[in-house]
Amino acid sequence: MSEPWVYIKDLSEYVGKEVTIKGWLYNKRSSGKIHFLQLRDGTGTVQGVMVKQEVTEEDFQTVKNLWIEASLEVSGIVRADERAPSGFEITVTTLTVIDNPSEEYPIGKKEHGIDFLLDHRHLWLRSSRQHAILTIRERVIWSAREFLHTEGYLLVDSPILTGSIGEGASGLFELDYFEDKAYLAQTGQLYAEAAAAAFGKVYTFGPTFRAEKSKTRRHLTEFWMLEPEVAFYDHEDNMKLQEDLVCYIVSQVLLHCRKELELLERDTAMLERIVPPFYHISYDEAMNILHKLGSSTPYGDDFGGEDETLITNEFDKPVFVECYPKKVKAFYMKEHPDNPDLVLCDDLLAPEGYGEIIGGSQREDDYDKLLARIREEKLPEESYNWYLDLRRYGTFVHSGFGIGIERTVAWICGLNHIREAIPWPRTIYRITP
Ligand code: NSS
């Protein structure tokens, strides 16, 4: 191979030059004397035009027998072409087959059911749609981390194997740990709180696990969560940080991922609206809205996915629902100073029916109240000794939240199910591939 190996995304720098692309055959069609090869290399797709008279007879015949997803090295001259989706085309000069599959690629042009696609997730990832979604996912993560880094937050990784229950005893994955039991982390929060006492502004980021038997379009058993925690931030400061972070993420996706949003046919007008201020309603107000809209969820319950959808449909931007009843929320949330039945917390609901993408709260910093809550919830007290130390030694007002990466990606991409927002979705029914 004498021509330089280049990536499809960089073709604009090689107009008029001969280059080599290494990749796969995404699609092909022929019109007797010309083959049109759709080539992809992970950075983009480009059409290779192979004219019978301009290549060897052998290369021309070879293409006739190629299956979709054959791996190839294709050399040719780069031409600017306004009609081509990428803006470029390659006039093929030579072609080397690395591997021509011995059978037809299982994912074809016909519509496949979702189970078939999920069973073939390892191949489905090669589609341009999945490429667009995962490119946006990467931008969501990158921009969130960039925002926090720039604002002086320290990333403090939290363990996945833990001995303390983070959110609640239901929904735990439990495993044998030598002579003992361990849990897969539901959250990094408790560790983030310890880190906030050490370093002030911190966040954790990693996979988290919930053994919830929820079959909804919003639930995975393994999902990625980014959890900032800030010393001396109260409930209000906490919501402001959430608003700023979400606005930054959306603005960065709009700035860098136009092509991907277009491919997904996402209505970007709805995303352009994502600027401060977001709406704020109390749990009580949310209940009133729901009851007016005919929901039968009783006062005092947590909202289901359908309730959240109903609420968000009333707003054209994200909405914070604040101060839920204590009994439906986790043990660590701070009791409301004016009403001991409520806690200082917020759920941030994304618009267009998407619902909760963030759960956050001010933390209970009073030793006695926190211990009482641990006992009320019948959590194993001994495993919270270290957590209670944070209230024994220099307790402090602090707040934080968790933003679910997949729910955020599903919303920004306009997906109707969360399973496409993660490369390898895990749900109650799926642990492979
Ligand atoms: O349970 S949360 O509401 N809150 C926490 O875990 C806190 N410990 C976070 C904190 O304050 N540091 O979950 C937070 C977010 C929630 O809003 C969703 O976006 C996402 O995590 N989440 C999920 N995504 C996908 N699947 C499931 N099952 C799921 N559960 C929560």
Q: Count the E strands.
A: 18
Structural class: alpha+beta
* Largest beta-sheet characterization: 8 strands, mixed
What fraction of residues sit in β-strands?
25-35%
What binds here, in terms of ligands, is: 5'-O-[N-(L-asparaginyl)sulfamoyl]adenosine
Q: Assign the CATH class of the largest domain.
A: Alpha Beta
Taking the alpha carbons of the first and last residues, their distance comes to 36 Å
| Average predicted local confidence, pLDDT | 96
Spatial order of strands in the largest sheet: 6-10-11-18-17-16-13-12
Total individual domains: 2
Shape: elongated
Question: Could you name the key traits of this structure?
Answer:
27% strand, eight-stranded mixed sheet, 2 domains, alpha+beta, 433 residues, BirA Bifunctional Protein, domain 2, binds 5'-O-[N-(L-asparaginyl)sulfamoyl]adenosine, OB fold (Dihydrolipoamide Acetyltransferase, E2P), five-stranded mixed beta barrel, 13 helices
What would you say this structure looks like, in words?
The protein is of the alpha+beta class. It has two domains: 92 residues, OB fold (Dihydrolipoamide Acetyltransferase, E2P) (Beta Barrel), CATH 2.40.50.140; 301 residues, 2-Layer Sandwich (BirA Bifunctional Protein, domain 2), CATH 3.30.930.10. 30% of the residues lie in helices and 27% in strands. It contains 13 helices and 18 strands. The strands form four sheets. Strands 6-10-11-18-17-16-13-12 form an eight-stranded mixed sheet. A five-stranded mixed beta barrel has the order 1-2-3-5-4. The protein has a three-stranded antiparallel sheet with strand order 7-9-8, with no helix packed on it. A hairpin with a 4-residue loop joins strand 16 and strand 17. The mean pLDDT is 96. The site of 5'-O-[N-(L-asparaginyl)sulfamoyl]adenosine has 22 residues, from strand 11, strand 17, strand 18 and helix 13.
